[in-house]
Amino acid sequence: MPRIVVEVMPKPEILDPQGTAITHALGRLGFEGLGEVRQGKRFEVAVDAVDDATLARVREAAETLLSNPVIEDVVAVRAAD
Amino acid sequence: MPRIVVEVMPKPEILDPQGTAITHALGRLGFEGLGEVRQGKRFEVAVDAVDDATLARVREAAETLLSNPVIEDVVAVRAAD
């Protein structure tokens, strides 16, 4: 089955303690020169076909169930590579 | 600062209880016709420049810190849109 990818990230103004912890860990592991890390979610949704109607339905599902609109943004809804 | 996106997904053979729970919830919420959902992680890493060396360093960080190679695959390391 083809798949649609949904990408969700915390809103920029929202504190991301997990991302901050990763940022510090990268420094401790010697990955110098890499800046701030932010962590979000990635979903793959199996669909019958990737068409505009299905993309719209997956976006609606993303905005109601796969993300919390108060603290997260749906940053991408696209056909899987 | 430019950013590099890292996308991590559970290996196909790995059970994804969270994804299964979401799949059932979508059905209950009336999103008919959407198939199996799998959930992974998405990171944004701020970098000084997006070049091959930095992409390679971020991929190395992804494979050592941002994912668990036993149960997860790094499916993409790319410049943010």
TrEMBL record, chains A, B:
Catalytic reactions on record: N(2)-formyl-N(1)-(5-phospho-beta-D-ribosyl)glycinamide + L-glutamine + ATP + H2O = 2-formamido-N(1)-(5-O-phospho-beta-D-ribosyl)acetamidine + L-glutamate + ADP + phosphate + H(+)
Localization: Cytoplasm
Known pathway: Purine metabolism; IMP biosynthesis via de novo pathway; 5-amino-1-(5-phospho-D-ribosyl)imidazole from N(2)-formyl-N(1)-(5-phospho-D-ribosyl)glycinamide: step 1/2
EC main group: ligase
Entry's EC annotation: 6.3.5.3
Annotated GO MF terms: phosphoribosylformylglycinamidine synthase activity
Domain of life of the native organism: Bacteria
InterPro entries, sorted: PurS (IPR003850), PurS-like_sf (IPR036604)
SUPFAM superfamilies (UniProt xref): PurS-like
Keywords recorded for this protein, A-Z: ATP-binding, Cytoplasm, Ligase, Nucleotide-binding, Purine biosynthesis
Chief subcellular location: cytoplasm
Chain's role: Part of the phosphoribosylformylglycinamidine synthase complex involved in the purines biosynthetic pathway. Catalyzes the ATP-dependent conversion of formylglycinamide ribonucleotide (FGAR) and glutamine to yield formylglycinamidine ribonucleotide (FGAM) and glutamate. The FGAM synthase complex is composed of three subunits. PurQ produces an ammonia molecule by converting glutamine to glutamate. PurL transfers the ammonia molecule to FGAR to form FGAM in an ATP-dependent manner.
UniProt similarity note: Belongs to the PurS family.
Subunit record text: Part of the FGAM synthase complex composed of 1 PurL, 1 PurQ and 2 PurS subunits.
PANTHER family for the chain: PHOSPHORIBOSYLFORMYLGLYCINAMIDINE SYNTHASE SUBUNIT PURS
Name of the protein: Phosphoribosylformylglycinamidine synthase subunit PurS
Native source organism of the sequence: Aquipuribacter nitratireducens
Lineage: Bacteria, Bacillati, Actinomycetota, Actinomycetes, Micrococcales
Gene name of the encoded protein: purS
